[in-house]
Amino acid sequence: MTHTSETVEALVEQLSKLPTIGRKTANRLAAYILKMSREEVVEIAKAMVAAKDRVVTCQVCFNVADYSPCPICASHRRDRSVVCVVEDPSDVFALERTGDFRGLYHVLGGVISPLDGVGPNDLRVRELVGRISGKPDLTTASGEVAETAEAYDESGVQPPEAVPVEEVILALNPNVEGDTTAVYIGQLLDAFDVKVTRIARGLPIGGDLEFADEATLSRALEGRSGL
Amino acid sequence: MTHTSETVEALVEQLSKLPTIGRKTANRLAAYILKMSREEVVEIAKAMVAAKDRVVTCQVCFNVADYSPCPICASHRRDRSVVCVVEDPSDVFALERTGDFRGLYHVLGGVISPLDGVGPNDLRVRELVGRISGKPDLTTASGEVAETAEAYDESGVQPPEAVPVEEVILALNPNVEGDTTAVYIGQLLDAFDVKVTRIARGLPIGGDLEFADEATLSRALEGRSGL
Q1: Which of A49, A47, A56, A53 shows the shortest CA–CA distance to A155?
Q2: Do B102 and B50 fall into the same domain?
Q3: Residue B100 to residues A204, A208, B20, B92, B160, Cα–Cα distance (Å)
Q4: How confident is the model at residue A3 (pLDDT cuts 50, 70, 90)?
Q5: B28 contacts in chain A (CB < 8 Å)
Q6: Cβ proximity of A178 and A87 under 8 Å
Q7: Where are the zinc fingers (C4-type) (chains A, B) (predicted)?
Q8: At what angle do helices A176-189 and A125-133 cross, to 10 degrees?
Q9: B63/B92 Cα distance (integer angstroms)
Q10: Nearest to A28 among B11, B19, B49 (CB)
Q11: Which residues of chain A neighbour B93 with C-beta distances below 8 Å?
């Protein structure tokens, strides 16, 4: 016990549970919270609980959203012939921030990782195949029925016109798990008339060739393209 | 708007208000919060609000605590002849962690910083003088009456025997504001029969002379002591 207040100590303990927040940062945050107005603190606390209470999983793309289907899936302005496969909702945020992608998403909820005991059945892989095949009448990994049509029926949103998927872009991280998952999904989708691509791996913009690691450099060479 | 959920967006916004938490970390925390159980999130949210609701300022040392006087001021085992003056409650935490200091504290609530518009009257300087002079019958910076005896009367805690303060240790940060505050307090306390010291400034333990900045090195030389 280094604090003179058990309440502060409890707060520091709670804050330390969050990722990227060590004991030192937690102390600093606690000191800041004590200086904030009660209203401000209540607002943060409410936002945290609201996220748990209100946020749902889109039953089409499995992204987090306030409604299902999510605004992207329900949009009439997105290109429905392209589906971008990502690991986590945060990857959707990252891609949306670029403003360059106008297609739909599919959130796997992880990547294949035998070391962590994560296999294809723990991910939304079957649901992806369902979307590509145009027969999304499969039970999801969690046992819920994820029928695109049904998701729309329940929401009362007018579903955009169904369009066959022409391209699946695998936007998975360039590491062992991402590679494994990409290869696995690529093989699964071989059976369908759909183009499967993967986002480029190479030197980051602003990066320096001199300081790039060998794996990145090899991949950058391998992936070279015409001017 | 890069999120598909306004609730998540609101949470990220709220979290970004905290120090050391940028938009990226806020996104990461939000993703983690969505994965936590509702109970865990409620626990964190409650701890934050509880800190605002339950934590009070000790009316003797002005540290944060669950009760006034705080456990340190109320303790019969601390050396009441030594008072360590610090800027913030977090400095008390840091010093208590060493386990080396057995005296009492006095939290100024800041340091003199003309650039930020903070003068001696915004700090608990008068209260410090009150404690040293043995006549702590002054109104505090915030206008409340901070009378040590009264603080004890209200709490019902048996006050430890009053002991005259023999030494005031200024544990202020080694920067311009800390130096200014130290000099100011030193001059104020000149009128009393009390030894005023300041914690040593020099090379940090494990630090490297070669990489130390000149100011630190100068101070380390100046503060050299016998073996």
Answers
A1: A56
A2: no
A3: 50, 49, 29, 12, 21
A4: low
A5: 19-20, 90
A6: yes
A7: 58-73
A8: 30
A9: 8
A10: B19
A11: 2-3, 27
The string of DSSP letters for A59-103 reads TTT--EESSSS-HHHH-SSSEEEEEEEESSHHHHHHHHHHT---E
Distance from CA of A40 to the nearest CA of B (A): 9
Residue B95: count of CB within 10 angstroms of its CB = 19
Each residue of A76-104: pLDDT tens digit? Answer: 999 999 999 999 988 898 888 888 899 99
Q: Would residue B97 count as lying in a domain?
A: yes
Instruction: Write out the two tokens for B83.
Output: 């008072």
Reference A53, options B36, B27, B1, B28; nearest CA is B36
Identify which of B11, B32, B89 has the shortest CB distance to residue A47: B11
- B39 and B134: one domain? no
Residue B52: its chain A contacts at CB < 8 A? 33-34, 36, 38, 41-42
Who among A3, A36, A55 is closest to B7 (CB)? A55
What CATH number does the domain containing A153 carry?
3.40.1360.10
Claim to verify: residue B67 and residue B48 sit in the same structural domain: no
ipTM of the complex as predicted: 0.73
Residue B192, domain extent = 57-198
Give which of A4, A33, A7 is closest to B97, Cα–Cα: A4
Residue A62 domain flag:
no
CA B125/CA B134 separation, integer angstroms: 14
Q: What tokens were used for A98?
A: 């670029």
A184-194: pLDDT as tens digits: 999 999 999 99
- Strands in B11-90 per DSSP E: 56-57, 64-65, 79-86
Tokens of residue B21, six digits: 């938490």
CB contact under 8 A, B20 and A17: no
pLDDT in tens, A96-137: 888 889 999 999 999 999 999 999 999 999 999 999 987 654
Q: Which of B2, B34, B89 sits opposite A31 (nearest CB)?
A: B89
